[in-house]
Amino acid sequence: MIVVTGAAGFIASCLVTRLNAANFNNIVVVDNFSVAKKLPNIQGKKIKEYVDRNEFFEWLDKNYEEVEFIFHLGARTDTTETNRDVLNLLNLDYSKQMWNACCEYQIPLVYASSAATYGSGTLGYDDDESLTHLLQPLNAYGESKNDFDIWALQQTAKPFFWAGLKFFNVYGPNEYHKGRMASVILHAYNAIKENGRFTLFRSHNPDYKDGEQMRDFVYVKDVVEVLYWLMHHRKNSGIYNLGSGQARTFLDLTFNTFTAMGAPINVDFRDTPEDIRDKYQYYTQANMEKLKSIGYDKPFHTLEEGIQDYVQNYLMTGAYY
Which of 69, 116, 143, 272 is deepest in the core (most CB within 10 A)? Predict the structure, then answer.
């Protein structure tokens, strides 16, 4: 059996689809299944068992001998969350418990970290583990992810294989439930469909013109390919970046969304909300050499390719992946 936590969420539900496509059907999905808006993400998938996240470790104690691999992708992912008790419970304490269980039962583990750990990027975007304790995230979510990375690196007891993946700006199907935290592509699509225009955040940094803030946007189908590959690789444990390796502007992203929809380009700007303005990343770009160095060589979608697939095959049809 393969365990996927956060399974009704965005990336994890896409991973279940990828596993099913490779004929892995004994999937144990773990989540808070009371959140109804996420449930369409896992409908129609081949799943062996559903386990509530609060009951998972009790379940694992009884079933560990059958578990081949754990993908721990469940987390509180709202970057505007300020309740540290919630973040500590879901992003730190739960992950520590997962790590310790994988050590005890010798189960390989891949877990979700985040590019939010890099903060403003003053130390760059290299997944050099010696820099982890020096990083200064800009929000409590990023801090919770970095705190776990630091804790994991300090442990003498480790799963025989483990990988922490610093996800950059992931976009693609199955993020429909994420509301404000969904990718700009989804927000752009909805706005363009409704009124033929889209409004981007204005730059409040003199080094960047409006709309030329840059992020490493990575298509979710590329993310799950890396996850699938790591399940088979099972060596070279450590923390890895997972982005496209190519920073692109929000104007690039928006123009490509208009183009994929066959709509004329019409872009406005508004001030960045004050609650995120001083925590805003103006530039991110994953250094992907570390992942490539251990043998991962599949090409990633370009932004143009990813947006076209997402818009035309999912957003315009209402399909899930």
Answer: 116
Catalytic residues: 141, 178
Q: Which residues are annotated as a binding site for NADP(+)?
A: 10-11, 31-32, 38, 53, 73-77, 145, 170, 178
Question: Which domain range does residue 80 map to?
Answer: 2-171+217-245+287-301
- What CATH number is associated with residue 151? 3.40.50.720
Tens of pLDDT along 1-25? Answer: 999 999 999 999 999 999 999 999 9
Evaluate whether residue 308 is within a structural domain: no
Most distant pair of Cα atoms in the chain: their distance: 57
**Binding-site residues, please?**
10-11, 31-32, 38, 53, 73-77, 145, 169-170, 178, 180, 187, 201-204, 215, 280
Residues with Cβ < 8 Å from 93, sequence gap 6 or more? none
**pTM higher than 0.90:** yes
